[in-house]
Write a structure and sequence with these properties.
alpha/beta, Rossmann fold, 7 helices, globular
C-alpha cells in the first residue's frame, strides 16, 4: 500500500475535510489543505507534509493558484477531495434566488471547477483518485431539501459520467454518500429559508425542525468515516459509490428497492413505444 500520496482537499478547516486531512497525515500522506480562510485551518504538521492554501471553489483563479502551489510544493497531486459544500433547508417555494445560486455555485459548479483544474495533472500522471463528497441526499430527495438535493443529484450524475471518461486514463472516481455525522453541517454550515406558514405542517417543515435539533448529537463519527475513505482510496475494489452510516445505507436501500419495484410494475406499459 502506497503511504505517500499527495491529497488535495477542499474545505479542510472543518467537518469531513478536516477529518480526512488528519487521517491522511496520520498515515504518512502529504496534504494540501485548502479553505476560503487559511487561518481557520487548525491542522499541524511539518511543511514537508502539510501545505495550507487559500481556495474559494467559486473563484477559478483561486483554484488554479492553489493547484499550482501544490505542484510547486509537492510535485504532484494523487487524491482530489471535493469536500467544500453548502447546506440549505427550505421548501422550494421558500428559497430566495440568492440562496439557490449560492448552493449550486458551491456544490456543483465549484466541484466541477476543482475537477477541471486538477485533471490536467492527473492525466499527465496517468493516475489519481477523485473523491466526491455527496450525501444520502444525492440518492434520496428529501422534502425541504430540494435545492440541496438538486446539487447532490447533479454531483452524482457528473461523477458517474466522469468515472467513465477518465477510467482508461488511470483515474478513479469515488462518490461518498454520508448520512448524519457529527460535523458542523447542521449548524453553522446550514442556511434556512424564510418559512411560509402553509409548509409548517408538511414534511418540509418537519425537516427544518429535525435539522435544528440534530446539530451536535448526530450518531456517526466523522473520524471513522475519514478512515474508511482513506482506506477506500488505496483499495482497487472499492465501488463507485460509498454510502456511510447505517441511516444512509438503510435509506438508500429502501429508495432503490422501491424504484426497482416501480420499474417492474411499469415495464409492460413503458416498453410499448416502438413504431
Amino acid at each position: 500500500m502506497n503511504e505517500d500520496k499527495v491529497w488535495f482537499i477542499t474545505g479542510s478547516n472543518t467537518g469531513f475535510g478536516e477529518a480526512i486531512a488528519r487521517e491522511a497525515l496520520s498515515r504518512g500522506h502529504r496534504v494540501v489543505a485548502t479553505a476560503r480562510c487559511v487561518d481557520a485551518i487548525t491542522l499541524e504538521a511539518s511543511p514537508d507534509a502539510l501545505l495550507p492554501c487559500h481556495l474559494d471553489v467559486t473563484a477559478r483563479d483561486s483554484i488554479d493558484t492553489a493547484v499550482a502551489a501544490s505542484i510547486e510544493h509537492f510535485g504532484r497531486i494523487d487524491v482530489v477531495v471535493n469536500n467544500a459544500g453548502h447546506g440549505l433547508v427550505g421548501a422550494l417555494e421558500e428559497l430566495s434566488e440568492a440562496q439557490i445560486d449560492k448552493v449550486l455555485a458551491v456544490n456543483v459548479r465549484g466541484a466541477a471547477s476543482v475537477i477541471r483544474a486538477t485533471l490536467p495533472t492527473l492525466r499527465a500522471q496517468r493516475s489519481g483518485t477523485i473523491v466526491q463528497m455527496s450525501s444520502v441526499g444525492g440518492v434520496v430527495g428529501n422534502p425541504g431539501h430540494a435545492i440541496y438535493g438538486t446539487s447532490k443529484f447533479a454531483l452524482e450524475g457528473m461523477s458517474e459520467a466522469l468515472a467513465g471518461e477518465v477510467a482508461s486514463l488511470g483515474i478513479r472516481v469515488l462518490i461518498v454518500e454520508p448520512g448524519p455525522f457529527r460535523t458542523e453541517f447542521a449548524g453553522r454550515s446550514m442556511d434556512f429559508a424564510e418559512p411560509i406558514a402553509d409548509y409548517e405542517q408538511t414534511p418540509a417543515g418537519a425537516l427544518r425542525g429535525r435539522f435544528r435539533g440534530q446539530d451536535g448529537v448526530q450518531p456517526n463519527d466523522p473520524a471513522r468515516a475519514a478512515a474508511i475513505i482513506v482506506d477506500a482510496v488505496s483499495d482497487g475494489d472499492t465501488p463507485l459509490r460509498i454510502p456511510l452510516g447505517p441511516e444512509a445505507i438503510d435509506r438508500i436501500r429502501t429508495k432503490l428497492t422501491a424504484q426497482l419495484d416501480d420499474l417492474d410494475r411499469w415495464e409492460p406499459v413503458g416498453r410499448r413505444t416502438r413504431f
